[in-house]
Amino acid sequence: MSILEIDGLSFSYEDGTPAIEGISFKVESGEKVAIIGPNGAGKSTLFSLIAGFRTPFTGKVIVNGDALDDGSEDKVRRHLGMLFQDPDDQIFMPTVEEDVAFGPQNLALDDIQGRVMNALRSTGTEALAKRVPHRLSHGMKKRVAIAGVLAMEPAILLLDEPTSGLDPRARSDLIGLLNGMKRTMLMATHDLEAVADLADRVIVINRSIMFDGTLADLAHRKDMLEQAGIELPSLSKLFSRLKDMGYDFRHIPVSLDNATSETARVIDEMGRKRQGR
Ligand SMILES: Nc1ncnc2c1ncn2[C@@H]1O[C@H](COP(=O)(O)OP(=O)(O)O)[C@@H](O)[C@H]1O
Ligand SMILES: [Mg+2]
Q1: Is 16 in the pocket of ligand 1 (CB under 6 A)?
Q2: Residues 130, 237 share a domain
Q3: 149 vs 117: CA distance, rounded Å
Q4: What's the whole-number mean pLDDT along residues 10-39?
């Protein structure tokens, strides 16, 4: 059984513009899925439907076999931890530590103190424990919001643009942290380098699903990239150009590791050819 099943979700806002239409996919336990698409594609709307903050017009969200709409909302919500795109929508308690404790307290979880400590430590926000969250910088607020989600230890993390607005160090710390977590994750993002490091699978949406596969496969789909307004990381663009120039790259690498091994292979091959072997 899939840990998350999205079945035919559609939703429109009050003005009648459809935000998402007929979205269906399944996520297996432990899978890390990136949801990408241009601004206004419906990523945040999709997450608010999955988290149960909005009710779909049609379709169902099934978490661990329980549908969101059949009276099991509380049970289902307990499995889901949502990081909002804007940290100001998430943090509201007078101190950082109270803010991080709020979620676990609300769910009546055990060992609140331990959870808060762990979450602050893993997000590098221990020193901020007594600070007023609203006075922090955007990046720090974002880390605090992430700590609040982690403190609930949800089975499924819904992360809406988790790396946006973070400085390079905080961004790579966060990617490292998420990479080390054996947890099911859906992550809406424009940060394709983070996707390359983190995600097993990429779903491109623009109101409905346009692509569902690996980033490596998506990198070859120029039509799709253009249509969905997706910019590949510079690294991948470099390889794409070299490939167009006739260099014998078998695929377009999306991560530094891939790029290194693919470049070494091509250089070795050129060397062998030159030596007539
Ligand atoms: N609260 C809202 N009221 C009305 N329209 C909205 C609201 N939030 C989002 N929309 C519209 O719904 C569509 C999808 O938005 P959103 O889910 O925020 O996209 P994304 O997160 O991919 O940028 C857009 O056309 C957006 O303008
Ligand atoms: Mg959004």
Answers
A1: no
A2: no
A3: 13
A4: 95
